[in-house]
Amino acid sequence: MARGEDVWFDEEAGPLVRPYAVTGGRTRSVQAELDLVTMIVISRRRAEPGSLDPEYELILALCQIPTSVAEISAKLNLPLGVVKVLIGDLIERRLLIFRAALTPDNEVLQKVLNGIRKL
C-alpha cells in the first residue's frame, strides 16, 4: 500500500461506512413519534425499482409484516438513530406506515406490579 493511502475496509469485516453517512449526516427523524416499540409496516404504495438505496430496500423487505423500530435496528445492525431517520424518510414518501404503541398509564402499571408481588 502506498504511503498516505487511506484504508476504507477491513478484510474480515468488509467495507466500513460510518452509519451517519447513510443518512447524509442527519441525526433526527422527521417523524418525532417514532420510538423503540413503534410498529412499522409497508404501505400499498410501491417505489420505482432501483430508485432506493440498499438500506431503504432492506427496511421495506423487513416491514412486509408489522415490525418494531427496535427490531429493524437490530436486524440491520445500525444505530437506532440512523434507522429512525431512514424510516422517517420512507414514511414521508408514503412507502411505510406506522402505529405508535399504546402505553398504559402509571395506575395500570402499578396494579400489574401489585398483582405480581402477590404471586
Descriptors:
single chain, alpha+beta, 3-stranded antiparallel beta sheet, 12% strand
Q: How is this fold's topology laid out?
A:
Elements: E1 9-10, E2 14-15, E3 39-42, H1 54-62, E4 67-68, H2 69-76, H3 80-92, E5 96-99, H4 106-118
Antiparallel strand pairs: 1-2, 3-4, 3-5
Helix pairs in contact: 2-3
Summarize the structure.
The protein has about 120 residues and is α+β, with helices and mostly antiparallel strands. About 35% of the residues lie in helices and about 10% in strands. Strands 4-3-5 form a three-stranded antiparallel beta sheet.
Describe this structure in words.
With 119 residues, the protein is of the alpha+beta class. 36% of the residues lie in helices and 12% in strands. It is built from 4 helices and 5 strands, in the order βββαβααβα. The chain has helices at residues 54-62, 69-76, 80-92, 106-118; strands at residues 9-10, 14-15, 39-42, 67-68, 96-99. A 3-stranded antiparallel sheet has the order 4-3-5. β1 and β2 (14-15) form a beta hairpin. α2 packs across α3. It starts with 8 loop residues before the first strand and ends with a helix. The mean pLDDT is 81.
